[in-house]
Amino acid sequence: MKGKDIKKATVLLLSSTLALSTAACSKDKRETETSTATSATASASSERLQPVTLKFLFLQGKPVEMDKVLAEFEKRTKDTLNTKLDIEFASSELTLKLGLKMAAGEEVDLSFDYLGIGTLYQNIAKGYYQPVEKYFNNDAYPGLTKAFPPELIEANKVNGHLYSIPMTEAWKIPNVIYYRKDLREKYGLQPIKTMEEFQVFMDKVKEQNPELVPLAVRNIRGFADGEMFANEEVQKNIRTNPYFISGTGVNFSVVLSDDGKKVLGAVTLGDPASDYANLPAPYNKPDYLYQYLDKYVQWNKYLEKDVLAQKSPGALFDSGKASASEWDVRAMAGVKKTIQQAIPGADIEYFVYNTKVAKLQPQALGTNYIPYNHAVVPVTAKNVDRTMKVLDWIFSSQENNDLFTWGIEGEHWTKIGDNGYSRSNDQAKKYSFPWYELSMNSMYERTNADTDPYAKKVLQFVKTNNAYYTLPLARFVFDATPVKTEIAKVTPKLGEYMPLFVTGSDPNWRDTATKMNKELRALGLDKIRAELVKQVQAYLDKGGK
User: Of 220, 230, 280, 367, which has the most beta carbons under 10 Å away?
Assistant: First the structure.
């Protein structure tokens, strides 16, 4: 599909599904055969399906009343799907646990994967997942056909096959900084709109409330996975931070010729200056691509001293031990309620730190039209048809989707209008499901009724095609198969270093990056680089953009 066709596809997709997600996150808590009840009437067979128990493996932790929701699902579908769900929650160890299960040939009927550091494409290259394209645009699965337009399915294929089911809400949900309004007022400051104003607030916290951590961030996420302080220029002939090509194990900045027909180079953190020398300005200077790391070092003074061990910055902020934290704008109402109830007299405000998004400026964000989160069917699945019937049921109606996303209406949440919801803290504690792993879809999205007007504007903005520009190499997907061994070697080594860089914990990051780069080269970095350049050039030679 050509670039202009992708843009057209996006318009079709947005109009047909209301909108189109971004980093794995919770809804209002952070870190948080034919089928279906609807389609069964159209089945050519009235014969009841044989009982089956499907085994799902998900990230996050098990909601307290997950069993109650599963019992309700079984009740609603006993005469159609006749299926039980055995859901295992692997917390943060999902990638490791999935790999162990695949190696042992253990049954997993559905799991979760994401773009992240490229695990989705790496796992596809390892042969972990089986293709599922035949279940889409298929009259026997009307729910999937309704919720997943052909354009979305085509955009997410790898080598002509669909190995993952894209969980979509918008191409990007903007991140914001939440900060304590009561402290801002105490310091006599005006509402914060920019990072410069926010830094003044940070200095006031250090001066007047030294017992607080000024800014809470996660050890491996750091400053929003490279989004804070990122260059906001439109990427025309380069793919770089924060829009690196996924699946390579190491993030490369890929530079193209002005006409977009030739790869001029692929460089990464720690490469010697000579590797940049032949690239066109301004990419011939490493500091142009990595200057944000200097900013991280400057801002490290606002982070907690043991930030490298911090896995739950949201909890640090929610408990009143930090004055600010970063997460997506969708969480606004939930964060506000949590702070108000947990800390007497406290309140929060927020600002969108991407200046273009804050102004609702057209083409504020780049996209390749591939969402961050995906459901996958491992090769050890024993009941693929039934698994897809369950998904078909989930995506066949708002009511079905709500059951998994929000729980039992009246017990776990309250419907507000056509597309709104509310729920108490007690309800959220009983059931807070990682919907981005199973039920996320723009067609069935609900918004917290307490979300403020500006946040609603931002959320509506990013669900329009006007908010995006098409990234170079938008349809390119790296095939990790030829270098999967090298990727398996460099990935853990990179993981040893990255927390230092992303949290600004190493003032001498340039020297450390050089050291890391040499170690990565000994593990196969240059072979991965050469394969990436080769594949990108082949993609361009075939008319890709």
Answer: 367
CA distances from 66 to 86, 420, 444, 464 (A): 11, 22, 20, 34
Q: Per the structure block, which two tokens stand in for 46?
A: 């009235």
DSSP assignment, residue 433?
Answer: -
DSSP letters of 27-77? SSSS-----STTTGGG-S--PPPPPEEEEEEESB---TTHHHHHHHHHHHH
pLDDT, tens digit (0-9, with 9 covering 90-100), for 486-544? 999 999 999 999 999 999 999 999 999 999 999 999 999 999 999 999 999 999 999 99
Q: Are 138 and 395 in contact (CB under 8 A)?
A: no
Q: d(Cα 121, Cα 118) in Å, to the nearest integer?
A: 6
Q: What DSSP assignment string belongs to 295-336?
A: HHHHHGGGS-TTGGG-S-HHHHHHTTSBSEEEEEGGGHHHHH
Amino acid at 444: Y
Three-class SS state of 482 = helix
Beta strands 83-89; 348-352: pairing state: unpaired
Residue 266 φ then ψ, to 5°: -140, 115
Q: What was the pLDDT predicted at 125?
A: 87
CA pair distance 79, 48, nearest whole angstrom: 7
Q: Residue 444, class by beta-carbon neighbours within 10 Å (0-12 exposed, 13-18 middle, 19+ buried)?
A: buried
